[in-house]
């Protein structure tokens, strides 16, 4: 009989909603068991946000399912918030000491950061507090956490785990881009150039209209795709916010490859996905894989988990090989 995997969610938006629905609803996961843990072994014990409309409510009240966990204020730095966030959200925050005491009190095995993009200082602070309070840390945001030796050492010194950065959706645009590139290469063609331009209706898309955030995410996404073929020319980016799309995202693809006789082949297509459901399986797989590694006595960061679950990761060039290795190690 396993003990529960106790997690705390920092940022309760669209992704958190489907994490809650997936854990507490009758949802069939992609992988039934990871490291001998089922999704039902995960327990949400803490939730934090900066939106005044959410703080003070329970997760069950907010999402109509899940535990009666009260959403408490989180931390942020006003100087790194986007104009879109400041304009559209009535913000409420807590101080570092209070936040740290709350994290310590709930005793989470893992803290998962789902805060909006562009918050490097806040992400580093949340990671630091997680380590200091004895919780492993998952960074689903584009902030650079795992790649910073200073932060990584905080977890190594305390024999804790950290995973990230920037969650890669199970069936998102980056996934499709990488799979297409891999498939064309394996069937003897040369990937010449491609672009992927996204529009969406979530608040995260609105937040990405900040040019600083857009450029950072563009760099991470393009780099992740180019791991399948470093010689190719790849351009990606979020181009606009369309409110009526809500949690949906439409990715526009253009692809040019060289086939037999150096004949050019083209793809010009669009792909519609939904951010929240697309994140659920990756998050619960990473949570369970990390707990399995912790049970074995591992600490620091695990490159295979990073490569499987995140765009900005420590290695791995073939998406299908990464999946094969992940399942070989954790489907036990």
Draw up the topology in text:
Elements: E1 5-10, H1 14-24, E2 33-34, E3 37-38, E4 42-49, H2 59-63, E5 71-73, H3 83-88, H4 96-106, E6 110-113, H5 120-132, E7 136-139, H6 149-157, E8 162-163, H7 173-186, E9 190-200, H8 203-207, H9 211-226, E10 233-241, E11 248-258, E12 264-274, H10 275-296, H11 303-309, H12 319-330
Parallel strand pairs: 1-4, 1-6, 4-5, 6-7, 7-8, 9-10
Antiparallel strand pairs: 2-3, 9-11, 11-12
What is the H/E order? EHEEEHEHHEHEHEHEHHEEEHHH
Biggest sheet descriptor: 6 strands, parallel
| Alpha plus pi helix count | 12
Strand-pairing-aware structural class = alpha/beta
Strand content: 15-25%
Indicate how many domains the architecture comprises: 2
Summarize the model shown.
It is built from twelve helices and twelve strands. The chain is of the alpha/beta class. The chain has two domains: 5-168 and 277-330, 3-Layer(aba) Sandwich (Rossmann fold), CATH 3.40.50; 173-274, Dihydrodipicolinate Reductase, domain 2 (2-Layer Sandwich), CATH 3.30.360.
Structure description:
The protein has 332 residues and is an alpha/beta fold. The protein folds into 2 domains: 5-168 and 277-330, NAD(P)-binding Rossmann-like Domain (Rossmann fold), CATH 3.40.50.720; 173-274, Dihydrodipicolinate Reductase, domain 2, CATH 3.30.360. Helices cover 39% and strands 22% of the residues. The chain has 12 helices and 12 strands. It has helices at 14-24, 59-63, 83-88, 96-106, 120-132, 149-157, 173-186, 203-207, 211-226, 275-296, 303-309, 319-330; strands at 5-10, 33-34, 37-38, 42-49, 71-73, 110-113, 136-139, 162-163, 190-200, 233-241, 248-258, 264-274. The strands form 3 sheets. The protein has a 6-stranded parallel beta sheet with strand order 5-4-1-6-7-8, sandwiched between helices. It has a 4-stranded mixed beta sheet with strand order 10-9-11-12. Helix 7 packs parallel to helix 9 (211-226) and helix 11 (303-309) packs across helix 12 (319-330). The mean pLDDT is 94.
